[in-house]
Amino acid sequence: MATPSDRLTHSEHSLPDVSADNIEHNLPVTPPMPHYKGDNYYNYPTQAPELNSSTTNINMQPNPMYQDFQSGPPQRRSSENQVIVEKIKEGNPDAQSPSSNLVNNVKIYERLDSILPGKLSLTPRYSYNPQKKTERDSVYQYLGSIRSDNNQTLDGLPVSLPDSKSNYIARVCLQIFFSIVLIITLFIAVSALVIAMLSLSTSNAQISSSQEIALILEELTPLINANSTYKLLVQNITNTQNSLSSFRNETLQNFSVLFNTPNNCYERSTECLVEKHTTSCSTIPLTFDNSTERLTGLSCVTTNMNGEAQIVLDDNSRYYCYCSITISQEIVWMCKISLWEYMRTVFREDGAYTYIRNLQMAIRSPDEPEAGSSKHHLVLQPSEEIRQRHITRIQQSAPFCVMRSNKSGKFNRHKSIPLIEQRDTDPETLRLVEDQERANYWKRWGPYLSERQWGTVREDYSSDGSCWDYLSHDHARSRAYRWGEDGLMGICDRQCRMCFCLGLWNGKDPILKERLFGLTGPQGNHGEDVKECYYYIDSTPTHSYMKALYKYPMCEYPYSRIELANRESGIGGPEIELEDLGVFKDNKYWDVFVEYAKASPDSICIRISCHNRSNSPATLHVLPQLWYRNTWVWGYQHEGATDKPLLQLLEDGHVHGEHNSTLGKWCLFASDCNGQTPQILFTENETNYKTLYGMEGADKYKKDAFHRYIVNGEKTAVNPNMEGTKCGIYHTQDVDSNSCVKFKLILCSEKEKPNLSQEEMFGAFFEKTIQIRKSEANKFYSRLVYQGITDFKSSLSPDQLEVVRQSYAGLLWSKQFYHYSVKDWLRGDPNTPVPDEARLCGRNADWGHLFNREVISMPDKWEYPWYASWDLAFHMIPFAKIDPNFAKEQLILFLREWYMHPNGQMPAYEFAFNDVNPPVHAWACFRVYKMTGSRGTRDQKFLARTFQKLVLNFNWWVNRKDPSGKNIFAGGFLGLDNIGLFDRSRPLPEGWVLEQADGTAWMAFFCIVMLDMALELAHTHDVVYEDMASKFFEHFIQISDAINQLGQGKGLWHEEDGFYYDLLRINGQSFPMRIRSIVGIIPIFACLTLEERVMDKLGGFKTRLEWFMKYRPDLSEQISGMDTNHEAGYHHLLAIPSREQLIKVLRYVLDEKEFLSPYGIRSLSKAHETAPFVMELDGQTQKVTYVPGESNTLIFGGNSNWRGPIWICINYLVIESLERYHFYYGDELKVECPVGSGNMLTLYQVSIELSLRLTKLFLPDKTGKRPCHGEAKSYQSDPFWKDLVLFYEYFHGDSGRGCGASHQTGWTALISRCFEKLAHH
């Protein structure tokens, strides 16, 4: 098993670059998968050839990175070239496929040598084709690859002499003779090689630059003359053949870069934002600096793929200019203007690139002008006809794959299939590509700071596991955290080394507002619950732009009142929220917006906007804080331990920070609302032992110093030496009524520190950065999330689009750095008191291998600031739409050996890793696989990689949760906390056995997904997966048969009721738990259609299926079959319910008196409201009744409820299942929806109806009321509230009011998929 440190240097595919950036990129690192498309890699040269003025020798060595390409010679007679071009235009396959006859290319080289004898040295590249190995070897031989005729060496010669003295001497002499001959031969060969190289160099020097250009023109002219738009380029080259410098300069002078809008520009340098970026459609000047041989002035990339220029310039590397130019319908040119210029002809067909020929030319010459700089313009503007032709071709072909250069000037070949299928690449998508390739770490900083680190299991070192009491909210401001940090609307780097958040004080609160407050599990009447009003407004996947809102009351925060009010409300009453206490009355509150915009990966502009919403002036204390997570006092040795870093104030007024990890040196610049440098406070991020325990600590300055300084007026609390590990930028501002003040900060690495004055830095540069990043965020979502097509926008209203946008914002803001090493946590740290030994046998003691230190998607960063494995699986479905690589990495992460238990179990959550969540991980992996690529372009390596580990998890389920071996599974609560009559996770009395319908159905669902994955891999990857497909096929049949067995006490299907129930066996007697809940609906999830046309390609699996159908009639009843009478042929349906059973279950699901609510499917039938299920067990009366809102029991803490409310995650699985059934049954199967309405719908139409009902939860009605906000008046009409949306954990079964965690945008973000389904429908 690899240790966390091993993961820094090991990769399944290649040794990673163990540089500072790579080490800190994401520890532990999930090794990147090579990006490929079908069988063809997107490979590009890593370095341009070294050329100088004395030679134009073009020596292209065979390189495996060119395995998809076949390059031909740049020199040809124009007549011969014309023939080749005509063949290409006529669609001659031999001309279009250079790999069809490699030997002919050798003949071409012979002709080239006859044209320019001794002046050109060429070596052909080749297209990799395993079936043409012999042909390729012949080319190697022709080019000089020496092979031995008999494949024997000198050592292999038979030498056998008698063992006598004379023979021994003879043998030694013979060996000496052969050695001398070998040495002489090698000497002659080396001498000849040196002479040949010198001769070749001398002869090549005779080719002038102008001659080389002339040769290239012979290639280009026939192609370009057909398009008058590009004659200007030819004319420039022709008129300046005598001077390459003139060629370069005149080309620059006659070409200009056109931008439709400023939003098409993707900045990679801060200088671009200061002066060079124009706000109108005009020419942008580019300067060529002859002393440095660099093109300067603009550092951006245009993202317009409509045939216009695409520019890549980077101040940290050589400068490249890429232009995508359509020459004709068949040919796309990509030009690079730099110290070297490459021109490649690329033919694109069905997503595959075929390399036709490679052209190189030097643009350096001896007559370079003297050092200096002059301004030139680059021009490239295709005609409208060419542009439209290019658009059509891009729309019909595979996603465009961008070639990137890294800081060293080398090209990174793509390591995966293109991230996102879209036709018009936008800046944010390019940032995703760069981050995935580790060319630029755009995700180094993000909203990874937790909103609650206090009260968590990982910070709990108590003997009894009382995490809420061990580190409370009141202690959080004074106590250093061990495993993480928290803060108000903050950010941190991906390893949480440096953190930033907001601090506020209204002059009345008893404490400084540095973190969100909420009630703990024991305090709340329905478990833990945050008692604040905050909202996630926006975020891009790379967090290049983020925005959040916090509503801060002007009156004293009612800490005691809100706890008392919830206690009085009791378990039968609703939760009392902040709004219910009147703290926002008369608009006496502050709207505090925080925006983050990245000028570069390590340069972040931060704007804090404070709005006084009241009708009277008020004073606000604002304290943005920057600090280092405490990693130096504990004495641990695992990853992340560092020496104590330092923040200090420099003479020029900015804060300088230095960390001895790979984070390096950082700077914080600040400006108040008047543009002046504000007061800066310093302290240490260390525990205040005196305040907490009455004892002195090592350092004088403590974590709570800012609270004591501002609230208590304790001026000695902060460090007068202006240094420490924590600093605060202190503003005190009087704000008029209905007015706003803004505070600006820039956090950047020392390497990317703007070389600007304070006024310039917080002027045009700052505002332009935020403006552009915000505009790019709009562009990203309009083109990607909304599919970039008009019909999607027109089919969704602005209100619907806003809900989708905020759902993605909440999903992205819910990322969190999560650190937890169970072994170290159990034993304690060297520099801390030794924990109670009872811990070694207590919570999570069986998970000593688990080491978490990654950014992970959380359910809710306050209420659930820890991952839950089945929650995360649902999160990745919407994530796959906006950041597919992150979705894949997260799914792979939970299958890695430092997460998954050696026995195959996946960790549930930190309160009890041994708990069992529903096995939906396989479904998420397969859905992400399908969502992130079209057929033929999907990431098969990702699918194979996850499949192997999921097999281990499947075996764990079979071995641990089917104790009787009868294919009837248990599993405990399975994520449905209080769904049963009693707590299903607790041990049952002796002689009791609970057979769970949901546990068995989940396993059938798991099995059917694994079967589908195996068939996909067998069809597209490797036929050996057919054996695994057969295994999962037969296992599914066994499970399906077990759950459906009819007769007294045998199966879990109740024929009389037409529903699935749990079965309780007590000492041989069987008791069906006749509770109509989501437990009985889950069996319909397990369904899969096997198409004949697919199985025909999998002979082994088809043979096994036919044998099974013929010789196992006792089990083959579980397989439905139908003739579809079209090209697809015969279909087989694998499903738990038969057609009749499905219809019976759906009659309950679609009945508004049972499961169907106006806003989706309830988790418990409404029929139990008047007819609760009652059962006498062990002398006690147990009852289950319909509870549409918050729970009225304390099972699992009482903070969630599965006895009536609507859960979007389950609803989404129902919708997908109905779509799969419709694929098999088609329009032949219709059901009444709603029951009693007489409205007969196909199953697909039912899925659309359910999607429509779910989306109504978040949309305002005619009065402005959104059901998710209940009866809150402020959300209905107040202009400062009505557009804000909260994505709750679950929703009231009747009214749709949001319940539970208010920011559980994880699986509730699935609502975005429902909106998209409606749009497509």
TrEMBL record:
Source superkingdom: Eukaryota
Domain Glycosyl hydrolase family 63 C-terminal: 1138-1226
Comp. bias intervals (Polar residues): 52-73
Segments of this protein annotated with the region Disordered: 1-25, 52-80
SUPFAM superfamilies linked: Six-hairpin glycosidases
UniProt keyword list: Membrane, Transmembrane, Transmembrane helix
Membrane-spanning intervals of the chain: 176-200
BP GO terms, sorted: oligosaccharide metabolic process
Name listed for the protein in its UniProt record: Glycosyl hydrolase family 63 C-terminal domain-containing protein
GO molecular function: Glc3Man9GlcNAc2 oligosaccharide glucosidase activity
Domain spans labelled Mannosylglycerate hydrolase MGH1-like glycoside hydrolase: 864-969
InterPro entries: 6-hairpin_glycosidase_sf (IPR008928), 6hp_glycosidase-like_sf (IPR012341), Glyco_hydro_63_C (IPR031335), Glycoside_hydrolase_63 (IPR004888), MGH1-like_GH (IPR054491)
UniProt xrefs under PANTHER family: GLYCOSYL HYDROLASE FAMILY 63 C-TERMINAL DOMAIN-CONTAINING PROTEIN, MANNOSYL-OLIGOSACCHARIDE GLUCOSIDASE
